[in-house]
Amino acid sequence: MSLFNVFNVAGSGMAAQSTRLNTVASNLANADSVASSPDAAYRAKEPLFAAIRNGLNGQPADAGSEGVKVLGVTESPNAITSRYEPGNPLADADGYVYQSNVNPVDELVNMISASRSYQNNVEVMNTARQLMQKTLDLGK
User: Which residue range or ranges hold the Flagellar basal body rod protein N-terminal domain (predicted)?
Assistant: First the structure.
């Protein structure tokens, strides 16, 4: 792997973790939202990642990984819970409102994990940059 490819790999990781942080922010913002039907209730968003596989030096495509890409954002299949609140303007005919399926504790864990992964990719880029600078300094 070329040293320049390190920037591509780390950059794709940073982009993926940025998407993950954005979905966590969206989930946390809608954690306490309610709706008048289970279909209208907010469902937690989850990004779906895949490794980008490229062959290295004429080797098969599974010989090395060249980063990560975001395949899309899916919705959580977890159940929507209902709450009896007959005074709520969003209540259905039976007096129930439907709460989002966001688990704030899980989202905070995801946020910490994504933030650390992002920071690690920044450190990889900084280290690669420093190595390139030291290599250029050898010629002085």
Answer: 7-32
Q: Is residue 39 part of a domain?
A: no
Q: How many domains does the chain have?
A: 1
99 and 41 in contact (C-beta within 8 Å)?
yes
Domain that holds residue 25: 3-32+45-76+104-137
Termini Cα distance of the chain = 26
pLDDT tens, position by position, 22-54: 999 999 999 999 999 999 999 999 999 998 876
pLDDT surpassing 80 at residue 2: no
Three-point CA angle 98, 101, 102, nearest 5°:
130
What backbone torsions phi and psi does residue 101 show, to the nearest 5 degrees? -100, 25
Give 23's DSSP letter.
H
pLDDT higher than 90, residue 125: yes
